[in-house]
Write a structure and sequence with these properties.
By secondary structure, the chain is α/β, with parallel strands linked by helices. It is built from 16 helices and 19 strands.
Length: about 500
């Protein structure tokens, strides 16, 4: 498998399959679509993440609309194959933590494969606590998170070496969680030259091999760790003695570590690139607008329509511009089929009685304050009047709040309680346990896709792209990718 594998893609979360609970939201979906696109284009890539046996979490909304959560379990062996003969090790707090890898192959129609390796510390030779380090996505405190990032960054490089991937030319960090891979590459360079210290040329060598994508202007998205915690976890690792670029304002800032040791850096939309250059002055930051994997997100009826009229659209997404010439009747028929499927699912989950002949708005993404999912309720009397006097409206919401995000949980509760107060003029549903399956149903099945973040905090966003692939128009704030995608009246 090492032949021709020249790109290693590291991400804290990756969504490869709806039932493989190794993703929580946009970052994981973007990573999954990047890998699927790489497979479609036969890019010689391998990907690395962590194996989360408990996934993100299972969401429960009580009668008041308050979110509680519990671990969600899935059967690893049903989807992934263990690499039984291969092990890697990392040192955490002076202990040796043993790692194994589970593999998921992403293939294109011709059989070209991008292997995705999920690192797993749940081995009997590890301590009980160390066995739990790869159990939960975004769980625990800063200590737990830093240990996970040691496994992802340092352990990920070591696992690739153990698996025989010796020809990697580029290491791509999808957000700063994986930035410790630069530390492992520095160690490799030092040992290659037989030195017990790191010098400036080593930093240049690593920099030439690393690429970094930053995803958010929201401060909580940039991991920072106190240096005493770093010393405790990494011990007397030689890299801890380097003040620059390891330390930033007296802390280990994973974003600055990745910025300092990458030769190419990009934001995820044109506007986000501009925002990032202001946030991280002194670094050259380009922008590559996020995309989605069309073959994954186009619903069956639209896929059949494209197959009839736009041959090769899955291999050449740019050919989808010819969708403008599709007949309105064909587009409407495909949309109605997708809407029927979505309405049936929503009604089976909520028993609210959504109707297929009513204008249906959709809003589904992580429940965070800056995304402003409740902005449509800013003037409820006007909203009720529009639905009553102009044309009936119903709204479908979905999305999880991070377990420690009280504001996000309050946002969900506010939406649910406000939705109830709108009856009978509007029907509002909130679907639990938003995942890839529900995302595909909603982005194809609603009539209008809502996007109302507080500018400029939506770095890119991709859910509206999925809706567009299925003929669903967006009603959006001019932020993220929509600044580039919006053409009024089209």
């Amino acid at each position: 498998m090492s032949i021709g594998r020249t790109v290693a893609y590291f991400s804290m979360e990756i969504g490869v399959h709806p039932e493989v609970r190794t993703y929580s939201g946009g970052l994981g979906m973007l990573a999954g679509d990047t890998i699927r696109s790489a497979a479609s284009a036969s890019v010689p890539m391998v990907a690395v993440s962590l194996l989360y046996r408990q996934g993100y979490f299972s969401q429960h909304l009580d009668e008041t609309g308050w979110q509680t959560q519990e671990p969600t379990h899935w059967v690893v062996e049903d989807f992934l194959a263990e690499e039984p003969q291969t092990r890697a090790e990392v040192i955490i707090e002076g202990r040796t933590v043993h790692l194994r890898a589970w593999r998921f192959d992403v293939q294109n129609a011709a059989g070209f494969t991008v292997p995705v390796y999920f690192l797993d510390s749940d081995l009997p030779e590890n301590s009980d606590w160390d066995r739990l380090l790869t159990q939960s996505l975004y769980g625990g405190d800063s200590h737990y998170r830093l240990c996970q990032e040691v496994i992802l960054g340092i352990g990920g490089v070591r696992m690739l070496r153990a698996l025989g991937h010796s020809t990697i030319e580029r290491f791509h960090m999808n957000e700063g969680h994986a930035a410790l891979l630069t530390i492992e590459l520095l160690r490799e360079v030092r040992e290659w030259f037989g030195r017990d210290y790191i010098q400036a040329e080593d930093l240049d060598d690593v920099r030439r091999r690393c690429v970094f994508t930053t995803h958010t202007p929201v401060p909580a998205g940039h991991d920072q760790f106190e240096l005493d915690l770093v010393d405790r976890v990494l011990g007397n690792h030689e890299a801890c003695g380097i003040h620059d670029p390891i330390c930033h304002e007296g802390r280990l800032n994973m974003t600055y570590l990745a910025l300092s040791l990458s030769h190419y850096i990009n934001g995820v939309a044109k506007r986000h690139g501009e925002v990032s250059r202001h946030m991280f002055a002194g670094y050259k930051i380009d922008s590559i607008t996020n995309g989605v994997h069309a073959g994954t997100w186009v619903c069956p009826d639209f896929a059949a329509l494209f197959d009839r009229h736009i041959s090769g659209w899955q291999q050449d997404n740019f050919s989808l511009r010819y969708a403008l010439s599709l007949s309105n009747d064909d587009v409407w028929s495909a949309h109605q089929a997708a809407k029927h499927e979505m309405i049936e699912f929503a009604n089976s989950e909520t028993h609210v009685g959504l109707e297929e002949n009513v204008l249906t708005l959709g809003f589904a993404r992580r429940a965070a304050a800056y995304k402003r999912a409740d902005l449509i309720f800013d003037d409820v009397e006007r909203l009720k009047r529009i639905s009553r006097d102009v044309g009936r409206i119903q709204i479908v919401f979905a999305g999880k709040a991070h377990p420690r995000d009280e504001g996000g949980k309050q946002l969900i509760q506010r939406i649910i309680q406000t939705g109830r107060s709108l009856a009978p003029d509007l029907k509002v549903v909130y679907l639990q346990n938003y995942d890839m399956k529900i995302a595909k149903l909603l982005t194809a099945g609603v009539d209008v896709w809502l996007n109302t973040p507080e500018p400029p905090l939506e770095a890119s966003g991709t859910s509206g792209m999925k809706a567009a692939l299925n003929g669903v128009p967006s009603l959006s704030i001019l932020d993220g990718w929509w600044i580039e995608g919006c053409i009024e009246n089209i």
